[in-house]
Protein backbone atom coordinates (compact mmCIF):
# COMPACT_ATOMS: atom_id res chain seq x y z
CA UNK A 1 0.00 0.00 0.00
CA UNK A 2 1.37 3.38 -0.96
CA UNK A 3 1.61 6.31 1.41
CA UNK A 4 -1.05 8.15 -0.60
CA UNK A 5 -3.40 5.16 -0.48
CA UNK A 6 -2.94 4.98 3.28
CA UNK A 7 -3.93 8.64 3.54
CA UNK A 8 -0.48 10.08 4.21
CA UNK A 9 0.02 13.06 1.94
CA UNK A 10 1.83 16.35 2.34
CA UNK A 11 0.21 19.76 1.85
CA UNK A 12 0.67 19.54 -1.92
CA UNK A 13 -1.29 16.29 -2.07
CA UNK A 14 1.84 14.27 -2.78
CA UNK A 15 2.88 11.32 -0.68
CA UNK A 16 6.07 11.94 1.30
CA UNK A 17 9.00 9.57 0.89
CA UNK A 18 9.80 9.84 4.56
CA UNK A 19 8.91 11.83 7.65
CA UNK A 20 10.74 15.12 7.75
CA UNK A 21 11.21 17.27 10.80
CA UNK A 22 11.12 20.83 9.53
CA UNK A 23 11.16 22.41 12.99
CA UNK A 24 14.83 22.72 14.02
CA UNK A 25 13.93 22.48 17.72
CA UNK A 26 12.01 19.26 17.18
CA UNK A 27 14.83 17.88 15.03
CA UNK A 28 17.35 18.69 17.78
CA UNK A 29 15.14 17.06 20.43
CA UNK A 30 14.75 13.89 18.36
CA UNK A 31 18.50 13.74 17.73
CA UNK A 32 19.26 14.30 21.43
CA UNK A 33 16.76 11.66 22.53
CA UNK A 34 18.19 9.22 19.96
CA UNK A 35 21.70 9.76 21.37
CA UNK A 36 20.29 9.36 24.89
CA UNK A 37 18.70 6.03 23.94
CA UNK A 38 21.95 4.84 22.32
CA UNK A 39 24.06 5.80 25.33
CA UNK A 40 21.40 4.38 27.60
CA UNK A 41 21.38 1.19 25.56
CA UNK A 42 25.08 0.75 26.22
CA UNK A 43 24.68 1.52 29.93
CA UNK A 44 21.68 -0.79 30.11
CA UNK A 45 23.58 -3.63 28.43
CA UNK A 46 26.35 -3.09 30.96
CA UNK A 47 23.81 -3.11 33.78
CA UNK A 48 22.21 -6.35 32.56
CA UNK A 49 25.62 -7.99 32.20
CA UNK A 50 26.50 -6.97 35.75
CA UNK A 51 23.08 -8.12 36.98
CA UNK A 52 23.59 -11.54 35.40
CA UNK A 53 27.08 -11.81 36.87
CA UNK A 54 25.71 -10.86 40.28
CA UNK A 55 22.76 -13.28 40.25
CA UNK A 56 24.08 -16.18 38.18
CA UNK A 57 27.81 -15.90 38.86
CA UNK A 58 28.07 -14.58 42.40
CA UNK A 59 24.84 -15.99 43.81
CA UNK A 60 23.41 -12.62 44.85
CA UNK A 61 19.67 -12.19 45.15
CA UNK A 62 18.15 -10.10 42.32
CA UNK A 63 17.36 -6.89 44.21
CA UNK A 64 20.87 -6.19 45.63
CA UNK A 65 22.46 -7.38 42.38
CA UNK A 66 20.27 -4.89 40.49
CA UNK A 67 21.26 -2.07 42.86
CA UNK A 68 24.99 -2.77 42.39
CA UNK A 69 24.61 -3.11 38.62
CA UNK A 70 22.62 0.12 38.42
CA UNK A 71 25.22 2.06 40.39
CA UNK A 72 28.17 0.85 38.34
CA UNK A 73 26.46 1.45 35.01
CA UNK A 74 25.47 4.96 36.14
CA UNK A 75 29.13 6.00 36.09
CA UNK A 76 29.44 5.15 32.39
CA UNK A 77 26.04 6.71 31.76
CA UNK A 78 27.05 10.05 33.29
CA UNK A 79 30.29 10.34 31.33
CA UNK A 80 28.76 9.39 27.98
CA UNK A 81 25.60 11.48 28.35
CA UNK A 82 27.54 14.52 29.46
CA UNK A 83 29.83 14.35 26.44
CA UNK A 84 27.77 12.75 23.67
CA UNK A 85 24.08 13.27 24.36
CA UNK A 86 23.89 16.73 25.88
CA UNK A 87 27.34 18.00 24.86
CA UNK A 88 27.30 19.79 28.16
CA UNK A 89 29.84 22.31 29.36
CA UNK A 90 28.16 22.32 32.75
CA UNK A 91 30.87 21.99 35.41
CA UNK A 92 31.17 18.59 37.07
CA UNK A 93 30.63 20.19 40.47
CA UNK A 94 27.18 21.25 39.27
CA UNK A 95 26.22 18.41 36.92
CA UNK A 96 27.55 15.46 38.92
CA UNK A 97 25.50 16.09 42.10
CA UNK A 98 22.44 16.70 39.94
CA UNK A 99 23.11 13.49 38.03
CA UNK A 100 23.52 11.66 41.33
CA UNK A 101 20.16 13.01 42.52
CA UNK A 102 18.33 12.07 39.31
CA UNK A 103 20.05 8.67 39.19
CA UNK A 104 19.40 8.13 42.90
CA UNK A 105 15.71 8.74 42.36
CA UNK A 106 15.89 6.43 39.34
CA UNK A 107 17.56 3.81 41.53
CA UNK A 108 14.71 4.08 44.03
CA UNK A 109 12.16 3.70 41.23
CA UNK A 110 14.11 0.75 39.80
CA UNK A 111 14.46 -0.91 43.20
CA UNK A 112 10.77 -0.50 44.04
CA UNK A 113 9.72 -2.00 40.71
CA UNK A 114 12.21 -4.87 41.16
CA UNK A 115 11.04 -5.51 44.72
CA UNK A 116 7.34 -5.46 43.92
CA UNK A 117 7.79 -7.41 40.69
CA UNK A 118 10.08 -10.16 41.97
CA UNK A 119 9.20 -10.44 45.65
CA UNK A 120 5.53 -9.61 45.83
CA UNK A 121 4.40 -10.69 42.34
CA UNK A 122 6.93 -13.52 41.81
CA UNK A 123 7.89 -12.22 38.36
CA UNK A 124 11.06 -13.37 36.65
CA UNK A 125 13.79 -10.89 37.49
CA UNK A 126 14.76 -10.21 33.86
CA UNK A 127 11.17 -9.51 32.80
CA UNK A 128 10.64 -7.20 35.76
CA UNK A 129 13.96 -5.46 35.03
CA UNK A 130 12.79 -4.73 31.47
CA UNK A 131 9.71 -2.93 32.85
CA UNK A 132 11.84 -1.06 35.39
CA UNK A 133 14.28 -0.05 32.66
CA UNK A 134 11.53 1.50 30.53
CA UNK A 135 10.16 3.55 33.43
CA UNK A 136 13.60 4.71 34.56
CA UNK A 137 14.60 5.59 30.96
CA UNK A 138 11.87 8.23 30.80
CA UNK A 139 12.64 9.52 34.30
CA UNK A 140 16.37 9.82 33.59
CA UNK A 141 15.92 11.56 30.23
CA UNK A 142 13.59 14.18 31.61
CA UNK A 143 15.77 14.75 34.67
CA UNK A 144 18.93 14.99 32.59
CA UNK A 145 17.44 17.28 29.97
CA UNK A 146 15.52 19.59 32.28
CA UNK A 147 17.98 19.80 35.18
CA UNK A 148 21.23 17.81 35.25
CA UNK A 149 22.79 19.09 32.02
CA UNK A 150 20.53 22.10 31.53
CA UNK A 151 22.40 25.20 30.54
CA UNK A 152 21.02 28.72 30.45
CA UNK A 153 19.97 29.68 26.92
CA UNK A 154 22.57 32.45 26.76
CA UNK A 155 25.45 29.94 26.77
Describe the structure in your own words.
With 155 residues, the protein is mostly helical. The protein is built from four helices and no strands. The chain has helices at 24-57, 62-85, 92-120, 125-148. Helix 1 packs across helix 4 and helix 2 (62-85) runs antiparallel to helix 3. The chain is elongated, with a radius of gyration of 19 Å. It starts with 23 loop residues before the first helix and ends in a 7-residue tail after the last helix. Mean pLDDT is 86; it is low at 1-9.
Beta strand %:
under 5%
Give the class from helix and strand content and strand pairing.
Answer: mainly alpha
Anisotropy-based shape: elongated
Termini separation comes to: 48 Å
Query: Helix and strand string, N-terminal first?
Result: HHHH
Residue-averaged pLDDT:
86
What gyration radius follows from the Cα positions, in whole Å?
A: 19 Å
- The percent range for helix content is over 70%
User: Ranges with pLDDT <50 over ≥5 residues?
Assistant: 1-9
Number of helices: 4
Work out the number of β strands.
Answer: 0
Biggest sheet features = none
